[in-house]
Design goal:
The complex is a heterodimer. By secondary structure, chain A is mainly α. Chain A is built from 21 helices and two strands. Chain A has helices at residues 4-14, 17-35, 41-51, 57-82, 91-102, 106-140, 144-162, 166-180, 206-223, 243-265, 270-285, 297-321, 327-338, 345-350, 352-384, 388-407, 410-428, 434-459, 463-468, 471-492, 499-503; strands spanning 183-184, 191-192. Chain A is globular. The model of chain B has no long low-confidence stretch (mean pLDDT 68). Chain B contains six helices and no strands. The chains are: A mainly alpha, B mainly alpha. Chains A and B meet through helix 8, strand 2, helix 9, helix 16 and helix 17 of A and helix 1, helix 2, helix 4 and helix 6 of B.
Amino acid sequence: MLNAANFAQAFAVIFQPMQIVALCAGSIMGVIMGAIPGASATLAIAILIPITYWTSTEFAIISLMAAYTCGIFGGSITAILLNIPGTPASAATCYDGYPLAKEGKGGKAIACAIWGSFFGGMVSAICLLLCAPTLADFAGNLGALELALVALFGLTMVASLSSENLVKGLFMAAIGLVVGCVGVEDQSGFARFTFSIMHLYSGIPHTPLLIGMFAFPQVMSMCTAKTNTIQKLGRDDKIALSRNEVKRVGKTAVISSAIGMIIGLVPAIGPETATFMAYDQAKKMSKTPEKFGTGMIEGVVASETANNAVVGASLAPTFALGIPGSGAAMMLMGGLTVHGLQPGPFLFKNSGDILMTLFLAMFLCQFMILATGFPLAKYAPRLLSIPQNILGPIIMMLCMIACYVSEGDLFSLLIMSVSGMISYILLKSGFSIVPLLLGVILGKTFESYLTRAMVLSTTKGGIGPYFISRPLAWIFVAVIFATLFLPKFLKKKNLTVDKKELGE
Amino acid sequence: MTFQKITRIVSTILLLACCFLFANSFSMNGGKLYAQACLSAAIILGIIVFVTSLHSSKTHKEEETEETRHHEPILFEPKIFMLWVAPLAAFFIWEWTNALYAVALMGFFMMFIMRKRPLQSALIAVLAAIGFVFLFHNLMGLPLSTPGWWPDTSIIF
């Protein structure tokens, strides 16, 4: 478990020159990838995985974390200057950011995004530091049946919230569990669905699958993305906020970070919903709500604070329970797995020092938003003018190399290619790929806990009496059923993200 | 092709694959119960998705106008397909033959992808391919076979 010795060790590690390099490189990569329309923090992590393959674990996790955090912020630059959200999480930033840039106040809008992201990120880092160990402690005391139900809860939650249609989401989750069955079964040692292909005996490798399913469709959308006129920053347009403006947006920042933090703790709701909720709340709180959408700094602050507040909070269930709630968190989890770190309660018991480094890195990443945001924002118009058809093949090549080095054979490239093709078709036909991937990732864990629970139940007279004797399991079952009705509840309360709005 | 039609085709393919795996699961020696349970769930949910999309396409048939037909999803664009195939082919050819063919092929594909400025684009693609493979092969030990003409960089690194 985490203690003062872990903290001291992490503190000594994180300020080593190599880790500072990792922090800077990850942050720059994150901001650039976040700023490119169509690319995202997920793609930044995908590209960084092969580069960090030969580095130390600390270097890897710091750079991946920096890319994730700064990638979410990077999306705001494109939203403000180009009216296209760099990442879906920055969709609400377009509403007021672009009108501000058109008025010649682009610098002010970017300053709002930088400080908002910093504030939201700091709040989320505190949330991660406080909630993740508590969650892990709780999960560590659970039995096999409860842990199986926790995995099932994560799966149903993601299936019901990440897809527009609940049945489609559950269908994808079930397909994911089937794909997770491929390989040698742990208990019996017999192969399942391998069709005598040697490479499949150890199961379908997660890294090529993740890169194929997330990165490929993104590169493709990047190459076909529409571009608007770039609003350049004028010489007199300073990236700064006055004292009065800081006072004006203070309350909005506090409320938006609270919204983002709460949303982040629930797997699968994601930063998109948090930004729209925070934007809506800022509008309701404002004395001039009619001016929202015409260039209000409160709108930019609300959106950017909320989306960065989600980042740290969403990592709490990822690290503590091993349930990643978003694509970027899944990719981050894949990056950690490459370095032998398996997220879950055991991570806290066995690798407390590395986890503490990760938590400290989360705080430092927020300062990196300030350090990279201000200078990179000035050069953003130049960066955005690089033709996508040049960036596309280069990123594609990096993704291929990422897959190749993660497994060391060409079979991983085939996995990536096929999964990329399937993912592209699934996305085009209205299916969500997040539940599918979560099904693959959680499949083995779910099966092993379920099998263990079944074995334990034989000593208690069967699964029925065993289930009745575990009151915590009843609560989990009730929560699982409740998650199935959550989309309807959110729709009723108008809390779901309008996909059309995101596409605009 | 309408959106509902694509959904139906995709869910049918997935359903067929699940049915095939379900039939295959009977010949498994162990751990079949869990796999069969997952497959059963997938098949039931797949049927629901298929029936729902069939039903909604019937009810919305009258609403389908010329305007909506223009917004049909485009599944494949040649540019996307090329972008996909080029680096993959380059990798496989590198592994099986040598880098020269791989880079030439990649450049050839890129010429198709970026028809506006073919020479410039092909040059960028070829240089990028050489650069990346050079970097990863020499600095990070990417296990790729090195052709005879490749400069011996072991002195430098």
